[in-house]
Design brief:
Layout (H helix, E strand, L loop, with lengths): L1 H38 L2 H7 L1 E2 L14 H7 L5 E3 L4 H14 L7 E4 L12 H5 L4 H17 L4 E2 L23 H16 L10 E7 L18 H8 L1 H8 L4 E4 L3 E2 L2 E2 L4 H11 L5 E3 L7 H5 L4 H11 L4 E2 L3 H11 L5 H17 L12 H6 L4 H14 L1 E5 L11 E5 L25 H9 L4 E5 L8 H6 L14 H13 L3 E7 L18 H12 L4 E6 L7 H6 L2 E4 L7 H9 L66 E3 L3 E2 L3 E2 L5 E9 L5 E11 L10 E10 L4 E8 L6 E2 L5 E2 L3 E8 L5 E8 L1
Parallel strand pairs: 1-10, 2-3, 3-4, 4-5, 5-6, 6-9, 12-13, 12-14, 14-15, 15-16, 19-27
Antiparallel strand pairs: 7-8, 11-16, 17-20, 18-20, 20-23, 21-22, 21-26, 24-25, 26-27
Helix pairs in contact: 1-14, 2-13, 2-14, 6-7, 6-16, 7-9, 12-13, 16-22, 17-22, 19-20
The chain binds beta-D-glucopyranose (BGC).
Length: about 750
């Protein structure tokens, strides 16, 4: 007892000490920045709010460019997407040696899922449900980026999305707020670590604030219109989680909210973000987000720039609207000097927190650049994490895992393209050294397996569509021969094999920014190929590449094995081979529902019940909420994914069936590996609030745990249910729980669950 109280005193003391230390550091920062601000001219203050394109600085001599001139005049706060520590040092030198006040620049980059070592696209990474792995991927990205001069990443992207048409669903974590929030926190921890003054941590920028993933009809940059109840209970959740984890900056989104573009939305950027959530970092616009408000129709450049500053925007990416117009707006009384000071202060604070005033070259260490990027160690970890992101959608006849013997025909337009493995938004990597599946597979199986290859089809029949879908160095070397000739050749090749692996789906640039689709099936020419391969009667494994949920009804009915590999990053080829040949047992689970067809979109597991739900077991009833032609069910639900082994779930055991506001209860299940291989299972907890002051979703994810089990092994997984877990935003946007009855569900995905009931008194 005595020992415990001494420990308690010690930890309180340590807490008080670190609190004191933080207060001293903040006071020191305030003094430093206060005195710097006093020396700054209005023009220099406004200059800090400017994040222009690097322009010819990236290609030509830094010294002579237009941007260089501005840097020397103190008219630039930072630059982005410049690669290379030497280059960045050269540009930083202009700021700290040739500008009047020697204020260092921020160097940002879209380090979205890795730097040169590339991890799976975020939607894939999310399917690992492994917060340690996700944090580690961000940590490695930060180590590599910081070794190369970067101190600020435009990540994590935490836009919740339930519309597979939207190409940027690839960049987010899927459809669930709770999981999205956990991932957001892990990413921020990974990038920023505990101490931003270290030279291997970088500042996170949470984007795109807010609701960007809900753009109407899945068309990029489109309008968003949403109730506040839905915002707070669902879409805003992950951004809030990232802010609570201490993210240093946030990016305003392109879309409007309540009729006002996010970039100039005071309610969003000040009332919610700063006042309600206590965010004290800085807000940057998205690329030309300020000037785009002219097209949104809320004013000319001067007006929209003033509106943005008034709303709480601090930095203008690319538009140069704030630097061009704020002095005039100040003279006219449209903005105040205090507002300009506040924005400038926040940017200077970010630079201070990063330690750039103490050492502006701290990220420009050639030695680190030479030894800490794309290392063997990082690549080994990336290979492991890639395998964790794959989702086994089907393996009916236990074709998988394959034996390392015999002859395999590897067929498909994506079978031999290293450049497409990295996935969208992998700007820093070197595409030409990434192995394609053919090369990776050969390396993994050595001479044990004979591998035959044929392309089999182009990506799409439409050459123009293929061109648009293979930009940024992702060319798939179009085969100009007639479709049938290419297919026949592949079928001939396939006939000589024991097993066919069809590497099909989307190219990496078929998802991502400005890559929305109105048809989310595998492109028709590839489906014709797949049908021809299935008709050979040989066992076919579909290795799917995609940046979004696809509609795969035919494939699900006709192809015995489907492994969804998303875009697994620079080591994807090896990771796919690891899983195909059983060196790794797949364990990923979907974080976005796969619809049966595009007409079901938006489709998500945590929907409301409506006043006319279907009766249990029915898929159509007249005058009920359903469709005439297909059921309401997705093809593969949220949380779904198979393994090479099987798991059994014991009955749910509750510690009690009710608790009060000061109490809690636990729910446990025993999970057993009933198969013959070791494997990992993601156990999911869902809760339904049966009666509320507002309608509540049919289920909501409230917990999950990923466990490893040897064959025959059992583990007990226990979730603790607290009143905190049951809170939601009611119609007055008050965040609270309501006493009543709840259904608790535990299972291996959002559809296949067991239930138990409890009440909160
Ligand atoms: C994207 C952002 C990105 C920015 C800078 C924009 O087009 O929406 O996600 O960070 O460009 O490259």
């Amino acid at each position: 007892m005595k020992k415990i109280s001494i420990l308690l005193c010690l930890s309180l003391l340590m807490g008080a000490c670190s609190q004191k230390k933080k207060e001293n550091q903040d006071a020191e920062m305030n003094r430093f920045i206060g005195s710097l601000l006093k020396q700054m001219t209005l023009e220099e203050k406004i200059g800090q709010l400017n994040l222009p394109v690097a322009g010819d600085i990236t290609t030509g001599q830094a010294e002579n460019s237009d941007v260089a001139k501005k840097i020397k005049e103190g008219k630039v706060g930072g630059l982005f997407n410049i690669k290379g520590s030497e280059k960045i040092r050269e540009v930083q030198r202009l700021a700290v040696e040739e500008s009047r006040l020697k204020i260092p620049l921020l160097f940002g980059m879209d380090v979205i899922h890795g730097y040169e070592t590339v991890f799976p696209i975020p939607l894939g990474l999310a399917c690992s449900w492994d917060m340690q792995a996700i944090e580690q991927s961000a940590r490695i990205a930060a180590i590599e980026a910081s070794a190369d001069g970067i101190c600020w990443t435009f990540s994590p992207m935490v836009d919740l999305c339930r519309d597979a048409r939207w190409g940027r669903i690839a960049e987010g974590n899927g459809e669930d707020p709770f999981l999205g929030g956990e991932i957001a926190k892990a990413m921020v921890r990974g990038y920023q670590g505990n101490d931003l003054t270290q030279n291997n941590t970088i500042m996170a920028c949470v984007k795109h604030f807010a609701l960007y993933g809900a753009s109407e009809s899945g068309r990029d940059y489109n309008t968003v219109d949403m109730s506040r109840v839905r915002m707070f209970n669902e879409y805003l959740w992950p951004y809030h989680a990232a802010v609570e984890a201490g993210a240093g900056s946030i990016m305003a989104s392109f879309n409007e909210i309540d009729g006002i573009p996010a970039t100039a939305n005071r309610w969003l950027l000040t009332d919610v973000l700063r006042k309600q959530w206590g965010f004290n970092g800085f807000v940057v616009s998205d690329y030309t987000g300020v000037s785009e408000m002219i097209d949104h129709g809320i004013g000319d450049l001067k007006t929209v720039s003033a509106k943005a500053l008034n709303a709480g925007l601090d930095m203008d990416m690319v538009s140069e609207g704030l630097p061009a117009t704020l002095s005039e707006s100040l003279e006219e009384g449209q903005v105040t000097e205090a507002q300009i000071d506040a924005a400038c202060r926040r940017i200077l604070e970010a630079k201070y927190k990063l330690g750039l005033f103490s050492d502006p070259y701290k990220y420009c260490d050639q030695k680190r650049a030479g030894s800490e990027i794309y290392t063997k160690e990082h690549r080994t970890i990336a290979r492991k994490i890639a395998a964790e992101s794959f989702v086994l959608l089907k393996d009916d006849k236990q074709i998988l895992p394959l034996k390392k013997q015999g002859t395999i025909a590897l067929i498909g337009p994506l079978a031999d393209s290293g450049a497409n493995m990295a996935g969208t938004w992998s700007v820093a990597t070197k595409l030409d050294r990434i192995p394609g599946l053919l090369e990776g597979m050969k390396e993994v199986v050595g001479d044990k397996v004979r591998i035959l290859y044929a392309k089999g089809s182009n990506l799409t029949e439409d050459a123009e569509l293929e061109k648009r879908s293979t930009v940024f160095g992702r060319d798939l070397k179009r085969d100009e021969r007639p479709e049938q000739v290419i297919i026949n050749e592949a079928v001939q090749t396939a006939r000589n094999a024991d097993v066919i692996i069809a590497a099909l789906g989307e190219s990496s640039e078929m998802s991502g920014e400005s890559s929305s689709r109105t048809d989310i099936k595998i492109p028709e020419t590839q489906r014709k190929l797949l049908k021809a391969l299935v008709q050979t009667g040989k066992p076919v494994v579909l290795v799917l590449f995609t940046g979004r949920p696809l509609a795969l009804v035919w494939e699900n009915e006709n192809v015995p094995a489907i492994l969804n590999t998303w875009f697994g990053g620079s080591e994807a080829a090896y990771a796919i081979a690891d899983v195909l040949f059983g060196d790794v047992n797949p364990s990923g689970k979907l974080t976005a529902s796969f619809p049966q067809n595009i007409g079901q979109i938006p489709i998500f597991y945590n929907h409301k019940n409506t006043g006319r739900p279907l009766a249990e077991g029915k898929w159509f009833q007249k005058f009920r909420s359903n469709y005439l032609d297909v059921s309401n069910e997705p093809l593969y639900p949220f949380g779904y994914g198979l393994s090479y082994t099987t798991f059994n779930y014991g009955a749910i055991r509750l510690s009690s069936d009710s608790f009060n506001a000061n109490g809690e209860l636990t729910a446990s299940v025993v999970v057993t590996n009933t198969g013959e291989r070791a494997g990992k299972e993601i156990i999911q907890l869902y809760i339904r609030d049966l009666v509320g002051s507002i309608t509540r979703p049919v289920k909501e994810l409230k917990g999950f745990e990923k466990i490893s089990l040897e064959p025959g092994e059992s583990k007990t997984v226990t979730f603790t249910i607290t009143p905190e877990l049951l809170r939601f935003y009611n119609n007055d946007l008050k965040y609270d729980y309501e006493p009543g009855d709840f259904v608790l569900m535990i299972g291996s995905n959002s559809r296949d669950v067991q239930t138990a009931s409890f009440s909160l008194q």
